[in-house]
Amino acid sequence: MKRSIGIDINRDKISIVQLCFTGGKFSLERASVREMPESGSSEEKTTADIQFLINSMITEENFDMSAKVTVTAPYDRVFFQNFRTDLSADEDIGHLIKFELEDDFPIPFDELVAGICGGRELKGDDREYLVGAINRSELRGRVETIKEAHLKCSTVTTDVFALYAAASLSDNLIDNTTSVIVHSDNSGVILAIGVKGRLVCDRHFSSQNEVEGGTPLTSIQVLTREIEMTLRAIFGSNAGARLKVFISANNELLDDLSARLPEIINCEVVALNPFTKIDCSERQPNTDIVIAAGLALIGTNEIPEVLNFLAIDEFSSDRTAETKRGLFVAGALILVIGALLAVRLFYELNNLENQHDLVKKQIREVFVQTLPEEKRIVNELAQMNEQLETIQAEYGTLAAGLSDRVLPLRILQVISEKITPNQNIRINDISMAPESVRLAGAAPSFESVDNLMSVLRRVSEFNTIEVQSIDVDPQSSGVRFTLSVTTVLK
Predict the structure, then answer these.
(1) Cα dihedral sign, 51-54-57-62
(2) Are 127 and 85 spatial neighbours (Cβ–Cβ below 8 Å)?
(3) Residue 16 β-bridge partners
(4) Is the CB of residue 265 less than 8 Å from the CB of residue 239?
(5) Which of 111, 126, 256, 431 registers the highest number of CB atoms within 10 A of its CB?
(6) Which of 447, 454, 446 is closest to 473 using CA atoms?
(7) Which pLDDT does position 395 carry in this prediction?
(8) Backbone angles phi and psi of 257, in degrees to 5
(9) What is the β-pairing status of strands 127-135 and 79-85?
(10) pTM of the full structure
């Protein structure tokens, strides 16, 4: 057994209905209707007035306060917009609508609670969705109002879904046809269009005080005009198969529409009366509680695909809370990583300082070993660099003085390499010029001198080899000679 309470709060009255679903049948257990008190200068009723009325109605009629409660959103504060896309999944659309339609609703983005009411397929792959939206603060205010009446709200939806639920109960073929639902009372007119069980249009307007061409229009004229214009806007000139129009209104308006509408559009007009499928016992329900009854039907979970602003808001809040938790965890991880990086940085810095001290110590040791005579140490590297520059300057001076002796020394080096011990040649005197060398010496024989000259002439670095003098040495029975050697080197 399931008990469900539907609460319809509109501009003029509050209607409450309690249904019981058991054994596959619905029964009407409680019903109450109260007029709203006059509110002075404001058309909106105060929260205190609504709470007082609901409390008194629940108490006096002995409603089951543990039953699930479905309530209409604040009157005239739900906005509808059509949205076309080539996406097919409602889940994908649900993620987009808030961003795609944020400029189409008079609600701040952060306060926007929006959901899909229904939709239809268009030509090609395009689809058109009906989107409903409400301000989050107004939604939560309505939930808080029900809570203050000691009831737990499970669903916050719109009056059009309650009417569709009532129509679905009275005609189980509604999901296979194109249907029009009209509800008229002192608060105004609700006009809804459904295609294959899904809403595609929802309009709220007044049928009073309408003038066309200077002539006042009757309610029936306004309704027939608006129904015809709405159908043409949705379906064009051809609405397809025969329509079924459900009318929830007083008997006079129902009779007038039943006579006039078939003349304008191809339709069948029937009374929207869900109580033909609900056991009402001795109660005689009327159109005042049709919306409340539809809300109670929704609460039994027997009516699928109902827009529930409360569930959308709770889901959004859960996602926001999950996002905040994720951000908190990410922030904590960032702090931990930052702390670890700081510790690592401190360790590396300390290690670099130790290495710096070690290098300074080694530089001091090298300085003391290199310049032991230096007693005043200010900057080791600068002082060693200064000492090096001094040595380089001294070397430059020394090298300039030795530059004229480089070639003669090279000549002597080559000659010393060419004279072997077994030649018995002795050099007694050496004279050096910038590019030549004169040698004076003794040899065993003239042949030995000739052999020496032959060896020296094969040296590529020498330019000329000349014998300046050669004669017999009377003392040693050998010969004395003087040679001049010049080089090609520069």
Answers:
(1) negative
(2) yes
(3) 7, 32
(4) yes
(5) 256
(6) 446
(7) 77
(8) -65, -35
(9) antiparallel
(10) 0.64
User: Among residues 409, 413, 414, 452, which one has the least CA distance to residue 434?
Assistant: 409
Model confidence band, residue 191 (pLDDT cutoffs 50, 70, 90): very high
Topology at the third CATH level for domain 405-487 = Gyrase A; domain 2 (3.30.1360)
Query: CA angle at residue 180 from 117 to 170, to 5 degrees?
Result: 90
- Strand pairing category for 153-157 and 68-72: parallel
Pair 300, 21: CB distance under 8 Å: yes
- CATH number of the domain at 2-307, please? 3.30.420.380
Strands 278-279, 25-35: parallel, antiparallel or unpaired by DSSP?
parallel
Compute how many other C-beta atoms are within 10 angstroms of the C-beta atom of residue 27: 14
What does the block give as tokens for 212?
Answer: 């066309």
For residue 424, what are its two tokens? 């018995």
DSSP code at position 287: G
Looking from the CA of 226 toward its CB, the CA atoms found within 13 Å total 27
Q: Where are the domains of the chain?
A: 2-307, 323-401, 405-487
Structure tokens at 209: 């005080």
